[in-house]
Inverse folding.
């Protein structure tokens, strides 16, 4: 068992070797709850209980994406921490937030996933998202958002989103901080 160092004591991380069956059993034991978050890369099972700061960042970024889409007549549906799995590839993970911009009825995967690197990095989650064919991933870390768009050879860093190209992610990142409230974040984001 490995625990990641954390400045936010409410976050807990465990990594251990596991089989696909053990990952599925851990998911079943957890039930419909989205906590703790589970990531499985074919060999290692990561169990993470996110901190309040982590959750606030993910929620605030999600709120801004939804508000932007509403303001700009872009159809969107939030998938929250939807469990994404591929049994054939023996992988699974749960984004901190995710969004659908097409195929709202029978989606196979989100169109956009968000990962918050709060007390540590995101490891090889981009590799897992690439295997799952998620077309865009945002990574929030240290008040910056990096955009990754899936290409033929994996993810390439981009300057704007393919799903919400008019959304200024630098402004989003500057508006979002864990010691805030929704109203403060939205006022900061909208420049009021």
């Amino acid at each position: 068992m490995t625990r990641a160092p954390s400045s936010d004591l409410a976050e807990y991380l465990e990594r251990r070797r596991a089989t696909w069956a053990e990952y599925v059993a851990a998911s079943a034991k957890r039930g419909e709850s989205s906590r703790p978050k589970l990531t499985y890369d074919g060999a290692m099972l990561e169990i993470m209980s996110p901190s309040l700061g982590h959750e606030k960042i993910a929620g605030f970024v999600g709120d801004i994406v939804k508000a932007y889409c509403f303001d700009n007549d872009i159809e969107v549906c939030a998938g929250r921490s939807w469990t994404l799995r591929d049994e054939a590839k023996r992988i699974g993970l749960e984004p901190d937030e995710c969004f659908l911009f097409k195929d709202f009825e029978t989606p196979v995967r989100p169109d956009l996933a968000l990962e918050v690197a709060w007390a540590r990095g995101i490891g090889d989650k981009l590799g897992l998202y690439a295997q799952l064919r998620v077309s865009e991933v945002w990574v929030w870390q240290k008040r910056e958002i990096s955009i990754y768009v899936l290409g033929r050879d994996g993810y390439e860093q981009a300057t704007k989103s393919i799903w919400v190209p008019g959304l200024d992610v630098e402004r989003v990142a500057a508006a979002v901080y864990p010691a805030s409230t929704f109203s403060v974040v939205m006022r900061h984001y909208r420049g009021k």
Summary: Residues 52-190 form a domain with the tt1808, chain A fold (CATH 3.90.1570.10). Residues 42 and 90 are 5 Å apart (CA to CA). DSSP finds five helices and eleven strands in the chain.
